[in-house]
Write a structure and sequence with these properties.
- The complex is a heterodimer.
- Chain A has strands at 4-5, 10-14, 19-25, 32-38, 45-51, 56-59, 62-67, 72-77, 86-93, 103-104, 108-113.
- Chain A has no helices and eleven strands.
- Chain A is globular.
- By secondary structure, chain B is mainly β.
- Chain B is 0% helix and 50% strand.
- Chain B has strands at residues 4-7, 10-13, 19-25, 31-38, 42-51, 54-57, 65-66, 76-78, 87-94, 103-104, 108-112.
- In chain B, strand 5 (42-51) and strand 6 form a beta hairpin.
- The model of chain B has no long low-confidence stretch (mean pLDDT 95).
C-alpha cells in the first residue's frame, strides 16, 4: 500500500507562472520530506527537503510547505521555467533508525509551455 | 566528482540466469539503497543499508539480494531473474540529517526475457 501519494500525474503551466505540486502521506511516523526532480534517462536529483518541525522551507525558486495535521505537502516553483519540465517525486521517511527507508510517490509530470 | 556509479547501464538477460548490478559511491556516505522504477508506480525501494554489514528490506525485496561488505559498494544480486523484474533500477547513497537526500546513479535498464 503506497504511503506517499501524488494524485496528479501531470501538470501543465505557462512559463513565468507558478507551479504547485501536491503530495499526501498516510504514515504519521514520517517526519522528513523531500522533493526530487527527474529528467528522462537520468537519475532523480534532490531538490529540497523539510523536517516536520517546520512548515516551510525555501531555496531560490523552490518552496516546500508542510501541513502535518492534514498530512499534506506541496512544492511551489516560482517563476516556472522551461528547464523545469520534468517528473517531480515527493518522498518521505522517518528519522534515526528509519531514515534510510525513503518512500516515494508515483510522480507528477510537469510541462512548462512558452 | 562526487557521484554514484552503477553498471551496467543496459542489460538484457534470460530468465533464471544470475546477475549482479554493481553500485559504488565516492562520497563516504553511510546510507545506500536500491530502487526500481516502473510506470505509474514511481520509485519503490528494494533494499537499503545503514552502514557496512547492516542492511534492511524496503518495500519490494522479493527476488533480490544485497550485500554491504565495504562502505563504498552496494551490489544488487538477482539469483534467478524473472520477467517481472524487468525494470529501471537506481542505486543511491546519502548521509543522514536535515538537508540531505539520496544522490542517485544514472540507472540500469534491465530486461529479462
Amino acid at each position: 500500500d503506497q504511503q506517499v501519494k501524488q494524485n496528479s500525474p501531470s501538470l501543465s503551466v505557462q512559463e513565468g507562472r507558478i507551479s504547485i505540486l501536491n503530495c499526501d502521506y498516510t504514515n504519521s511516523m514520517f517526519d522528513y520530506f523531500l522533493w526530487y526532480k527527474k529528467y528522462p534517462a537520468e537519475g532523480p536529483t534532490f531538490l529540497i527537503s523539510i523536517s516536520s518541525i517546520k512548515d516551510k522551507n525555501e531555496d531560490g525558486r523552490f518552496t516546500v510547505f508542510l501541513n502535518k495535521s492534514a498530512k499534506h505537502l506541496s512544492l511551489h516553483i516560482v517563476p516556472s521555467q522551461p528547464g523545469d519540465s520534468a517528473v517531480y517525486f515527493c518522498a518521505a521517511s522517518g528519522t534515526t533508525d528509519s531514515w534510510g527507508k525513503l518512500q516515494f510517490g508515483a510522480g507528477t509530470q510537469v510541462v512548462v509551455t512558452p | 566528482e562526487a557521484q554514484v556509479t552503477q553498471n551496467p547501464r543496459y542489460l538484457i538477460t534470460v530468465t533464471g540466469k544470475k546477475l549482479t548490478v554493481t553500485c559504488s559511491q565516492n562520497m563516504n556516505h553511510e546510507y545506500m539503497s536500491w530502487y526500481r522504477q516502473d510506470p505509474g508506480l514511481g520509485l519503490r525501494q528494494i533494499y537499503y543499508s545503514m552502514n557496512v554489514e547492516v542492511t534492511d528490506k524496503g518495500d519490494v525485496p522479493e527476488g533480490y539480494k544485497v550485500s554491504r561488505k565495504e562502505k563504498r559498494n552496494f551490489p544488487l544480486i538477482l539469483e534467478s531473474p524473472s520477467p517481472n523484474q524487468t525494470s529501471l533500477y537506481f542505486c543511491a547513497s546519502s548521509s543522514m540529517g536535515e538537508g540531505y537526500g539520496y544522490t542517485f546513479g544514472s540507472g540500469t535498464r534491465l530486461t529479462v526475457v
